[in-house]
Amino acid sequence: MSTAPTLNSQIVGRAHYATRALLDRELARTGNTFFQSMALNATASEGGTADVDAIVHRLTSTLKIDEATALATVAELTGAGLLEPAQGEAGRVTLTEPGRAFQTRIAALGAELGTRVYGGIPEHERAIAARVLTEITARAETVFAETANGYAS
């Protein structure tokens, strides 16, 4: 008789990387990156036009990447014709038609993969997992902020 493992960072990490690998593989087939998909999602969530600063903040705060990498990601999307400067709105970008189509396709893929991965897990168990993982995220964010200058000696 085996016992269920206790939730820890290794289990959370394995789940993250297992599901992320599904999306990364599909993104690689398109020549796009996870960071780029997140920037497109950030723009789409703002109605298709967003402040570059808001996109950068979303990428740096959720993905824990530096500002230069986030700005480079926006520049890559602009160079690829998936984002363009918003007309008459300095510091803002908008999804192009190809950008909107790509973001919609990747979001649909993510939904389909989510159904395949989470389907069959009872709703109440998913709700418990969501509450626990949300709490873990909040606590990790707090520790991340507290240790910005390194651990105390």
Could you characterize the architecture of this molecule?
- By secondary structure, the protein is mainly alpha-helical.
- It has helices at residues 9-30, 34-45, 52-63, 67-79, 97-118, 123-146, and strands at 49-51, 83-85, 92-95.
- The protein has a 3-stranded antiparallel β-sheet.
- A hairpin with a 6-residue loop joins strand 2 and strand 3 (92-95).
- The protein is globular and about 65 Å long.
- The mean pLDDT is 94.
Helix vs. strand class: mainly alpha
Termini separation comes to 44 Å
- Counted by DSSP, the helix tally is 6
Oligomer: single chain
Low-confidence stretches: none
How is the biggest beta sheet arranged? 3 strands, antiparallel
From N to C, what is the helix and strand string? Answer: HHEHHEEHH
Helical amount among residues, as a percent range? 55-70%
User: What value does the average pLDDT take?
Assistant: 94
Strand order of the largest sheet: 1-3-2
What is the beta-strand fraction?
Answer: 5-15%
The total of beta strands comes to 3
